[in-house]
Amino acid sequence: MKRLSKKTGERLQSETLSETIDIDVTPVMNMFIILIPFLVSMAVFTHLSIIKFSLPSNVDSSISDMEEKPRPKPTIVLRQDYTALTLDGRMLDSLPYEEETDQTLSPLSEELSNTRDGLADSTVIIASGERVKLQRIIATMDFCNSHGFPDIGLSSAPEENE
Amino acid sequence: MKCCAGKFFTRESENTGAFRPQLTSLIDVMTILLVFLIKSFSVEGNLISPPEDLELPVSKSDKKAEPRLSLTVTKSAILHEERTLTQDKDFAESDSVLIPSLAEWIQEKGFSRDKTVIIEADKRLEFRILKRVMYTLSKSGLEDFQILAIRKE
Fold it and tell me: Chain A residues with CB inside 8 Å of B63's CB?
């Protein structure tokens, strides 16, 4: 009997405890109901950014007015089947391009970094073929930015049978 | 009897007083949702809203887009604030790089030469179209360009 009453006492004690930690969550729920629609309306799920570029300065008509020979600028040529890095008409490196695969330009990294070290100017020219898609041009601009070329000139690649 | 009566009243109050649903899991969900929403909360919102049918290119650039003169270049037309300036069929197959209707519109508006143009273009757009837009803008004195992209996190 004694043992039984002890057990009953324990049960009663635990019931009392469970009752004391029973918090009224209604105000919290009310706050959530107000706060969540407000935050959903103010949330931005896609962050937009911009990439600055211009027409390259040494390919327009002003070149004829200049007395000095224009400084060579590294050029990344984008063709439908390859990407090439050139400087002053010399091809420094190239890699084949396939549209279906998500291609990385990292094989050109070392050569572009070396070229950057030897130049005072931080301008790079991207010369694109006619049928090259915008996403590839943007990826190339990002690649140039990450290699210390914040000034990007976008021009048309010389004629070639694409 | 006393004991039984007390028991009876307790049960009665439990039965009538209250149907108390389990809110713990709901509060857990709400808390996670709240943290996520606070993280993506922006006071300004997006100042530029590109058309929904346009699939913008993805970029690692973290330069913030600000409202400027914007031109939307889709696969079939060039638009400014939902107003069609020219249809693709009018210039895409033409030999001239200049887009006459776009040049006319810029002249008509008389934009200052230092104005920056944001080009909102589809990521599948071919360079031959972009080239014509850039050429026409530069001939009209607008030479600073920006391309709108979705920031890669």
Answer: 49-52
